[in-house]
């Protein structure tokens, strides 16, 4: 089950899971993108559940989880990927900008994790993977986003402690600079061509290239695999170089 699964990193994660033979469940608020992705997956023979729902609405999340469980028989993996940016310097940031980012990232991950664990604990098996960010370490103009992404790491570690005895692991993947619609929006916000933002970012990345959504999907697949069952409460920075 992938929140925000219609585009970018979420879509790549869904596609990688589908290629591995998993049943795919996605929710998103972008109906057009969600339907397009779901139809493409179905045309390729993948089993897909797709529903327009917001992670900030508890009833919608719990309802979707129940439908997914009914359709597929279990909920084995949850990827809390849904995200939004409302960047601004602190003195310019509005209450709405702060609350929107907190609600989508933190309330959304809380609602989804709480709903999923109902089924995972009964099955004595589960994987919860939260998509954080290198911004959790601090980033100019992102006091809201940085705080939310750091909060996800704290949630990850607590879920690992609480749910481990039920055969459930919780881990976090923290992307660095990844070429997505979200980073394109960042370039537009700061008023430079996307190519210039990529070039500037790559100059600071030790491996000498920008990240692609597939790089994150590969890391998520590792945490979802049964072979990683002794890895829990960890944050993996997928950023082309070391992070603290």
What can you see in these coordinates?
There is one protein chain. The protein has 244 residues and is an alpha/beta fold. The chain has one domain (2-238): Rossmann fold (3-Layer(aba) Sandwich). 50% of the residues lie in helices and 14% in strands. The protein has 8 helices and 7 strands. It has helices spanning 8-19, 31-43, 58-72, 95-123, 143-163, 181-190, 194-202, 213-224, and strands at residues 2-3, 24-28, 48-52, 77-80, 126-131, 168-175, 235-238. Helix 5 (143-163) links the parallel strand 5 and strand 6.
How are the secondary structure elements laid out?
Blueprint: E1 2-3, H1 8-19, E2 24-28, H2 31-43, E3 48-52, H3 58-72, E4 77-80, H4 95-123, E5 126-131, H5 143-163, E6 168-175, H6 181-190, H7 194-202, H8 213-224, E7 235-238
Helix pairs in contact: 1-8, 3-4, 4-5
What is the name of the CATH architecture?
Answer: 3-Layer(aba) Sandwich
Q: Order of strands across the biggest sheet?
A: 4-5-6-7
What is the makeup of the main sheet?
A: 4 strands, parallel
Q: If you consult CATH, what is the topology?
A: Rossmann fold
Short description:
The protein is of the alpha/beta class and 244 residues long.
Give the key terms:
244 residues, alpha/beta, 4-stranded parallel β-sheet, 3-stranded parallel β-sheet, 50% helix
């Amino acid at each position: 089950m992938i929140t925000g699964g219609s585009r970018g990193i979420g879509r790549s994660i869904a596609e990688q899971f589908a290629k591995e033979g998993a049943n795919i469940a996605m929710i998103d608020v972008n109906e057009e993108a969600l339907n397009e992705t779901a139809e493409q997956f179905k045309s390729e023979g993948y089993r897909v559940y797709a529903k327009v729902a917001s992670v900030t609405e508890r009833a919608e999340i719990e309802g979707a989880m129940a439908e997914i469980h009914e359709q597929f028989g279990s909920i084995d993996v949850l990827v809390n990927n849904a995200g939004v940016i409302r960047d601004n310097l602190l003195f310019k940031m509005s209450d709405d900008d702060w609350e929107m980012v907190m609600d989508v990232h933190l309330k959304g991950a809380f609602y989804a994790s709480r709903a999923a664990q109902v089924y995972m604990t009964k099955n004595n098996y589960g994987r919860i993977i939260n998509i954080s960010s290198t911004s959790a370490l601090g980033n100019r103009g992102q006091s809201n986003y940085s705080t939310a992404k750091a909060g996800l790491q704290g949630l990850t570690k607590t879920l690992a402690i609480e749910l481990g005895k039920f055969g459930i692991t919780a881990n976090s993947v923290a992307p660095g600079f990844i070429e997505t619609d979200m980073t394109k929006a960042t370039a537009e916000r700061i008023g430079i061509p996307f190519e210039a933002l990529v070039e500037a970012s790559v100059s600071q990345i030790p491996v000498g290239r920008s990240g692609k959504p597939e790089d994150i999907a590969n890391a998520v697949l590792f945490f979802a695999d049964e072979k990683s069952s002794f890895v829990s409460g960890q944050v993996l920075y997928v950023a082309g170089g070391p992070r603290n």
